[in-house]
Amino acid sequence: MNINKINIPINVKLTVKIYFLAIFVFFIFRLILFFTQTDKWVDVTFFEIVKAFWMGVRFDVVITGYLLIIPTVILSIFTFIGKKIKLMEKIITIFLTLILSISFIVCGADIPYFNQFFERFNVGAFNWMNGEGGIRFVVNMIIEEPRYWLMIIPIILLSFGCYLSIKHIFNKTEKWERGSFFSKLIATVLLIGLMFLGMRGRLDEKSPIRIGTAYFCDNAFLNQLGLNPNFTLMQSFLDSKNAKNQETVFMNEQQAIEYVQKMLQISQPNPNFPIAREIVSDSISNKYNVVVIIMESMSAEKMRRHGNTKNLTPFLDSLSFKGLYFDNCYTTGTHTYCGIYSTLCSFPTIYQQHPLKRTPILLYNSMANTLKQNQYSTIFFVPHDSEFDNMNGFLLGNGFDQMISKADYPAQEVKTTLGVPDDFMFRFAIPKLNELHQKKQPFFATFLTASDHGPYFIPDYFTPKNKDVLDQIVEYADYSLQQFMWMAQKEEWFSNTIFAFVADHGNSNNAIYSLPISYIHTPLLFYAPSLLPDSTSDALASQIDLFPTIMGMLNLTYTNNTLGIDLQKESRKFTIATADDKYAVIDNNWYLIVNPKDSKTERLYKYRERDTHDYSNDELNQTAAMKTFGEAVFQTTQFILREHKQNTNNPL
Question: For 11-30, what is the mean pLDDT?
C-alpha cells in the first residue's frame, strides 16, 4: 500500500518517516558495537541477543522522541496552515541533520569508550578529558590509535545519508492541505501523545524507563547493549547536576581514610583499595542457603519485645527468641533504596544521594556478587515494578541472576501500585526456591516486602485484631512472614538455610527528634534452628553488618571491601544513618543529629531516656567524637565511589 495515497496529515507522515530513519541509524551503531565485542558472546543465546536489540529499540524511541519533539510541533503548526514553505523545510532539514548528527557522534564515540571502560558513554568521559593532559591528550590518543579513526567513517557517512534522506522526504511531500481541521487535530494529538509516551519509555505508572530497564540477564555486555549512549549521557549529566547527588566536603580526605582504616583495624591497607580486608576461612566452609528478607517499614518499636502493647507482630516476636537477635540495630537511612543498598552492598547511603540511580551503575563486592563467585544461585523477589528506584538494573548488575517482580505474577493478583500482597509473593517464591535447590548448589534469595506501605491492601482471607488500618497492615505483614516460614519448613532445603530478617527502615512512631529513632531502629535476626544457637545481643549493629556477619556464618574466604563488620567477631562503637537533609550518629547512649549545611543545628541527645535536652554544648568531646566518625565515614565512602574503588574484582 502506498502511504502517500492514505489520507494522513503531513506532520504525522514526516515524523514517522524520520523516526524510522533515526532508529535505523541507531541500530547500525548498536550492530557495530555488538561486533566489536565478540569475546563477550560467551554462553549467550540467540533469544538474549534479540532481546538486547529489541531493548535497544525501546531506548532509541525515547531518544528519538526528545530529538524530534520540537520539529514535530513546528511541522504540526505548518500542517494546520496547510501550505508548503520551502524556507521552513530547509531550516527544519538543517536542524534535524544537526541534532541527529550530534547524536550519531555520541554513538560513534561510545564504541571506543565502551571498549576501554566497559560502560556506555556518559558524562564521566568529559571528566576523563579534563584529567591529566586534558583534551590534547585525548586527541593524541585518538590519532595514535587507528581503530578510533574507523569510527569517524560511519559518523560522516550516516550523517550525510541522514541529510539526503530528510531532504528527499521533504521533496517528495505534497498536499499540505490534506485532511480537515478536525482530522488534523485528532491525528496531531495522538501523534504528540504517542511521542511523549515513547519518551517516557514504559506504560507502568510507577516508573519511567531507566538505565536498569535494559538489564535482563546475567551477561553484563548484553545488559548494556540495549542502552542508547545519548540516553546514558543525558541521564548522567542530569544526575551530575542534581543537587541531591553533589558531593559534600566533610573533612580532609586522607585523614578520613586513615580514620576508617584504624576503625576497621586495617594495619596494612591495600594501596588500590583502602578498606579491603582479606577474610580467610579458618575451617571447612559452610555453603548454607541464605534467605534475606528486607521488611518494609518494620520499626523495632512495632514489636512487643521493644515495648509495643498492641501485639502487632506475634510471629516475628516469637521468632526473635529462637535465633540470633540484635536488639540495638539501626538502618542507614529512611528510604527503601537505602535499605536495599546498605543491606546488600554494606555501604552507608550519603545524605541526599541515591546510590541505585547512579549513572553509570557501579559494581560492588556485594553479597550477591560474592556468593555468586562461590557458586550460589541468586534471586531477588519484589512485589511491585522492578524498575522503581532502578532496582532491576542495579541488582542484576550486582550479582543477581533473576529478578522476580510484578511482570512475573498473574495479573489478577496485582492489587495496587505496589503489586501483589506479601503473602502471595512468598507463596509464588517457594516453587522458585525449590527449582534452585534442584540444581544441587546453594542459593541466595532476597525478598523485599511492600505491604506495610501505602496504598494498603489487606486480603479478605486475613482478619486483623486491631481497628486502625496502620496497625492492621503490620499484623498482615507479620502474618505473611509466618506463612512463608511455615511453607519453607516443609521443604528439604529448610534445615540447611540461614534466614536473615532486617528492615529497609522503620517509621516515625512517637517522634521526639528531627530524625526519629523509630525510623532507623529496626530488627536484625538471624534464624537457622539447625545451625545457629538462640541468643540475644545488645551490641550496637548496623544494617551494613548483615553481609559480613552472614559470610562469617558461612565461613567462606572472601574480600570484605565494605564498611560492614562481622558482628560475631567484631564490634562497633558508632553507627550512622541519614535522612534527606541530615545525618545521625548513634552509640549505646548518645544520639547526634547533624545538618551538614548548617553546623549550628548539631544536637546531642540521651535517646535511651527519651531526653529532648540538647547536650551538644555540655558534652563537647562526645559531640566531636561522634561527628568525626560521621564525617570520616561519609568522606571515605565518597572517595571510594568517586574513584571506583568499591569493586576489587573488576575495577575500572
Answer: 91
Q: Are 518 and 306 in contact (CB under 8 A)?
A: no
pLDDT in tens, 571-601: 999 999 998 778 999 999 999 989 776 655 7
The answer to whether 167 and 93 are in contact (CB under 8 A) is yes
Whether residue 357 is found in the same domain as residue 399 = yes
Residue 650 domain-assigned (yes or no): no
**Does residue 287 share a domain with residue 173?**
no
Rounded to whole angstroms, the Cα distance separating 611 from 638 reads 33
Which range of residues forms the domain containing residue 65? 3-241
Q: Within this chain, do residues 301 and 375 fall inside the same structural domain, yes or no?
A: yes
pLDDT at residue 113 is higher than 80: no
Residue reference for cell 511453607: 487
Q: 147 falls in which pLDDT band (50, 70, 90)?
A: low
Predicted pLDDT at 599: 53
651 is a domain residue:
no
- The DSSP call for residue 402 is E
- Phi/psi for 43 (5° steps) reads 60, 30
**Is the previous residue joined to 455 through a cis bond, with omega within 30 degrees of 0?**
yes
Residues 6+ apart with CB under 8 A from 74: 88, 92
Same domain, 120 and 263: no
Last residue of one domain, picked from the residues 241, 259, 291 = 241
Looking at the whole model, is its pTM more than 0.85?
no
593 assigned to some structural domain: yes
**Domain final position from 225, 241, 257:** 241
Domain shared by 295 and 216, yes or no = no
User: Within a domain: residue 647?
Assistant: no
Q: Give the separation between CA 584 and CA 635, rounded to whole angstroms.
A: 15
Other C-beta atoms closer than 10 Å to the C-beta of 28 total 15
Q: What is the DSSP letter of 416?
A: B
Q: How is residue 479 written as a grid cell?
A: 502474618
599-to-31, 153, 245, 583, 594 alpha-carbon distances in Å: 54, 56, 20, 12, 7
How remote is the C-alpha of 563 from its chain's centroid?
A: 19
DSSP class of residue 88 equals H
The beta-carbon contacts of 125-130 under 8 Å, at least 24 apart in sequence, are 125/233
Q: Could you tell me if 217 and 296 lie in one domain?
A: no
**469 and 359, same structural domain?**
yes
CATH of the domain at 600: 3.40.720.10
More confident residue, 262 or 509: 262
pLDDT in tens, 346-380: 999 886 678 888 878 899 999 999 999 999 999 99
Q: In terms of domains, do 233 and 282 share one?
A: no
The closest alpha carbon to 250, from 635, 600, 581, 578, belongs to 635
Which pLDDT band, with edges at 50, 70 and 90, does 127 fall under? low
